[in-house]
Amino acid sequence: MSSLRVFMTSYVVNAIWEVTLIAAAGWMVSRLLKRLGPQAEHVTWASTLALAILMPALPFFRWLMAFLRVPDKVIGNSSITLVAAQGGGAQVEGIYVLPAILVLPLLLLYAGSLLYFAVRLVCSLHGTARLLQQASPISLSPEQEEIWRDCKRSFSVEDARILSSSRVSGPVTLGFREPVLLVPVGFVEGCTPQDFLAALAHECAHMKRRDFQKNIFYEVVGLLLAFHPVLWMLKSHIAQTREMICDGMATERLIDSRSYTQSLLRLATRIAMASRVSTLHAIGIFDANILEKRVMMMNIKKQPLSSVLKYGLIIPSTLFLLSIAAGGAAMAVVIEPQSSSQAADQAQPYGQIYQVGKDKDVSAPRLIFSKDPEFPKSALGKKDKFNGSCVVTLIVDSTGAVHDVRVKRSLSPDFDASAIKAVQQYRFKPAMRSGEPVAVALYMEINFERF
């Protein structure tokens, strides 16, 4: 089983529920921090997006590191408890095995969605680049030139350019190396100075924040979860709070809030009458479709909050969001598609598997060779004493060989891996039934101790 397939399977299964859990926590935190303004909400949603993308992958990386580490030997011992057979489909705690018939369609659907959204992203970026290449220089009146210079100066974006395009319906910002403001053909001629100032101030705020680059970054990192509807909601909230932040920056530096809201309404009416061309990654003044909410935010008188209240809201909210994300990661699992050898083992392998204790005429197998478990390297640097155990299930066949070793009660991925490696080397004198060797299922408790 390749690590890539383990990662993809584990990531998809964990993301289905874990992203929803993290997003719900992010929503609660954003409501709590609403009094602090759109900047706090924006940071909350961006952080939620990052956690939603990263957390479903953590179990896989813990699993991978457990197998990549070279463990060092330390005092260890194992004790054996014989129990009823669990059967071939016993569930592994922390590591789950899925039949290949389920894994293959899941991976095909995920790979297909990943390919679709990746191709769409590439096509969109190509279209955005062509939009910029086809843009034309624009002539501004002396008054408009002065407004443009004031906006660039106020937001420290002196290298910004303004161009026109027939393919946009309203002002949009784009450009990687140098910011470019695109306006529709005829936009300048039909704009009052106040409306022109409002539009340019808002777009220069986007340039100052490098929102075009951030938007591309969110799209790229979000490809892993592009299939998930909750991700679309997270990006929508990021876009909404981003627009409100830029509204606030514009009114703080260049224009009063009343004039700004009046201009927003006039510009919205004008843009609504134009045919809209999709520019997925260019940042426009009306991208988030929350004009009414933005106007209301502009008209709300903001009460200053004390530093004590701010930190009293921020610190508990941050801890809450991180604890929910960490809790979700702790409950997440590694999904291993069933290997062909496992399938073969389950199909035929050992004849009937007996249950020691339940089948009265079956004697227990006797351990004749064991190997001490190796203490994981990750825990060697700690000076404290250590005593812990994990439980594995296994089958001892009629020759005394060990098969199908799986974790039943996990200690941690690295300790589990060491226990499995040790148990796989055990040899037994087989269990007997009516004088004949038979296969039995066992539990084994593997103890790790450091004095």
UniProtKB/TrEMBL annotation:
Q: Which membrane topology describes this protein?
A: Single-pass membrane protein
What is the protein's major site of localization? membrane
Superkingdom of this protein's organism = Bacteria
One GO location term (cellular component): membrane
Q: Indicate yes or no for the key word ATP-binding.
A: no
Q: Where is the Peptidase M56 domain?
A: 25-298
Q: Does the keyword Transmembrane helix apply?
A: yes
List membrane-spanning regions: 6-30, 42-61, 95-119, 216-234, 311-335
Under CDD domains, the record lists: M56_BlaR1_MecR1_like
The UniProt entry, under Gene3D superfamilies, shows: 3.30.1150.10
- Biological processes, Gene Ontology terms: transmembrane transport
Query: Which Pfam family would be a valid example here?
Result: Peptidase_M56
Which keywords accompany this UniProt record?
Membrane, Transmembrane, Transmembrane helix
Show the InterPro entries listed in the entry: Beta-lactam_resp_regulator (IPR052173), Peptidase_M56 (IPR008756), TonB/TolA_C (IPR006260), TonB_C (IPR037682)
> Where does this one sit in the cell?
Membrane
Cite the NCBIfam families for this sequence.
Answer: tonB_Cterm (TIGR01352)
Q: What is this protein called?
A: TonB family protein
Species of provenance: Granulicella mallensis (strain ATCC BAA-1857 / DSM 23137 / MP5ACTX8)
